Structure prediction request, 628 residues.
Amino acid sequence: MATLEFEKELVELRGEVEKIRDDRGYKGDREARIRELEFELEARTARVFAALNPWEKVQLARHADRPHTLDYVDLIFTDFVEMHGDRHFGDDAAVVGGPAKLGKRRVMVIGHQKGRDTTENVKRNFGMASPEGFRKARRLMVQAEKFGMPVITLLDIPGASPVLEAEERGQAWAIADNLLEMVGLRVPIVVTVVGEGGSGGALALGIGDRILMLEHSVYSVASPEGAASIVWRDHKFAEEAAAALKLTPPDLVKLGVVDRIVPEPAGGAHNDFELAATLLGEVLMEEIDALSGKDVDELLAARQEKFRSMGRDAVAPV
Amino acid sequence: MWGGGPAAVKIFGRKDRDRRGPEGLWHTCRDCGEMAYAREFETAHKVCPKCGFHERMSASERIALLIDEPDKFEELAPRMETTDPLQFERDGLRYQEHLARYQKSSGLTEAVVCGTGRLNGAEICLAVIDFRFLGASMGVVVGEKITLTIEAAVERRLPLVLVNCSGGARMQEGMLSLMQMAKTAAALRRLHDEGLLYVSVMTDPTLAGVTASFASLADVIVAEPGATVGFTGRRLIEQIVKQKLPDDAQSAEFMQERGMIDLVTQRRALKELLTRLIDLYTGVERSAPEADLEGQEVTAREQPRAEGKS
Prediction:
């Protein structure tokens, strides 16, 4: 378990509850004490989380124990078959995807995938996708269109892979092609930022009819460290950058970038994978149902207009 | 992640002036360090007469290079500015004040100049991004003006030429900057659906969010010799992999070899190449007499094929 600084008191309290629960020789009213402590835990969690600053929220979104795409796929969808490869060069384990069922509906689910431990993180390049990952995603989107399946994407990426090999295989071209594909894809697309939405690599799976964010996710034009090194000329100013970038879900709803915030269990999704998945699953079902009844041309016109209007209020004189 | 950046602007602006000397008689090449008559350098459209290094051009110089009668260039949204949607501040310096400094030093209101004009007689929609303005970073104004240019091309059924350049997204406008990638891509989707031509000219440097959106979503991609083209900036790649990249990594020629760029073309041949492409792809023949091509002639060896391997 990885524990963030501000989580420590909550983890300790939670440990105490567990200890008493396991303590068969507890003197006094054990159940009452547990209720008391749980009440205390709830209150303190609410207090700690309400006081988080943007930099702490970034750390929470990057939390090593947070559920990742495949965890949500396991818990929300059924019959998932993971597809591999971009049919050009290779298979990027930092992007996963394939057909699955959401309730009774056939869907195509695609997401960035971070690892859980060091070995898996090396395999998945810490979730930093390569051109092959973006091209695999695009291939699956085209399939979804062919077979009339709504697309659900889950975003969780620090940033696209920043190595020369990725450049040589057209990192920017792969991302751009996905944008062009997604703006005109003739099936509904629901996008959810589940962890870290990092810049162009996130946007490569990020165009849709509805853009959702989990309560404790972030979505940013660049990592706070990256933005700090550009604007402050020093990555150590990441905390200042995190505050200035307006990367939290409520900020982005206000800016018109995000449509809806999906609640997480108290203390964050990593404290209860199943509840986190249930909450997200219900919302996805509702969103897909609402979009599926629409005429495709109207859907596309609305999607075009949605992105056409991004930042329209931020320019003057028009 | 979004390499290049404003640091380079300052260096370019100041040193470029200093090196010309007090009389502005000499130009010292940023690449080979050789001196040449400033006038000769300007006549060669800012290409070093000694080594062929392509110095960056301002938007107005670029328009003068490409448009037949630059004073008849009809500019779109010339005064559009950002409203500072994030109320961004760094160490007490407000983004608006920061922008005002760049407006003063560059004489531009924002990093892109766009509109319609004639290129060897053919009417085109053209946008030029100017590196001097905050590293040609893409914020809402760049995104909006590029989109307006694309929409003008769709509405008037004209060929679109974008002379691209960018250090990356405009940090100070946060996620709204990132969303300009989506906005421009959506506009280009309509243009392509309408069967219209878009030629992207990648100039030094074309990086990050601009390459990963409108700069690479073209029918034809032309780059200038030696231009840096890519996604992640060199500095960040070197930090991550902890070793120096080869000098030519991410050069236009390097990226052309890897299949990302159609043509690497000398600046003096650019206008003629665009003319030919417009003719070949759209059948819109030039209406200007040959005499107007003065200074634009290119030899058969240079013109239609990719260059830059010299």
